[in-house]
Design brief:
The chain is α/β, with parallel strands linked by helices. The strands form three sheets. Strands 6-5-2-7-8-9 form a six-stranded parallel β-sheet, covered by helices on one side. The longest helix is centred in the middle third of the chain and has 17 residues. The chain starts with 7 loop residues before the first strand and ends with a strand.
């Protein structure tokens, strides 16, 4: 389904936020880097782009080149991360991200991203966005999305039950991870609606945050 806003009101005790495609539009960089990788390995660029969003790079490589040794994927991923961290041309905020993060100041929330510390810092800085105090990055987990480990760790760090968390995600892998963690998911952007989130918005201008006296966060979507 297309990313038109689906009106909803959700109440949570914490929000867990993906970065790429959710807070930051890094598609230009991702396309450049991964299409180059696809060409070097004789793969169809369009098919590669269907896989890479939301996953750690080595996990995408494992899907795309299943017979390749893990060690080679990890080494290749390290080179790719360095390239992506150095390339911030075209990295901008998703519309509404700055205001959305400002509204969450002082409320329980965490960044849960498949990027590592260096890449997430570079992209959030390039987009002019503040980094949440609690961050779950590639270094924090042993398994990439769609595994729920990152979201479960984010909830644990915030001291909130997974069922009381709402995830914001753009990709199929990320939405599947949120679902597997037992959380509700708000899909953001053109990819999200195809993967069954609880609600979907074209961007974050369609989300209003209301802090309630009982410590919960009410999300007005639509």
């Amino acid at each position: 389904m297309p990313a038109t806003a689906t009106p909803a009101v959700l109440t949570a005790r914490a929000l867990l936020l993906d970065m790429d495609g959710t807070l930051v539009n890094s598609d230009a960089v991702v396309e450049r880097i991964w299409r180059g990788w696809a060409e070097r390995h004789g793969l169809d660029g369009d098919e590669v782009m269907k896989v890479v969003h939301g996953r750690q790079g080595h996990a995408s490589m494992a899907v795309l080149l299943p017979d390749r040794p893990v060690e080679q994927n990890l080494a290749d991923n390290a080179r790719m991360l360095a390239e992506e961290t150095a390339d911030t041309d075209g990295v901008v905020e998703i519309p509404g991200a700055s205001a959305f993060l400002a509204a969450l100041r002082g409320l329980p929330h965490a960044l849960v991203t498949s990027a590592d510390v260096a890449l997430s810092t570079a992209r959030m800085n390039a987009a002019g966005l503040p980094l949440p105090e609690v961050r779950i990055t590639a270094e924090s987990v042993g398994a990439s999305k769609p595994d729920p480990e990152g979201f479960l760790k984010g909830a644990a760090e915030l001291g909130v039950d997974p069922a009381d968390c709402v995830v914001f995600e753009d990709s199929g892998a990320g939405i599947a991870a949120g679902r597997a963690a037992g959380m509700r998911v708000v899909g953001v952007g053109p990819r999200a609606g195809f993967h069954g989130p609880d609600a979907v918005v074209p961007d974050l201008t369609h989300v209003r945050v209301e802090a309630r006296a009982d410590g919960t966060v009410r999300l007005h979507i639509g």
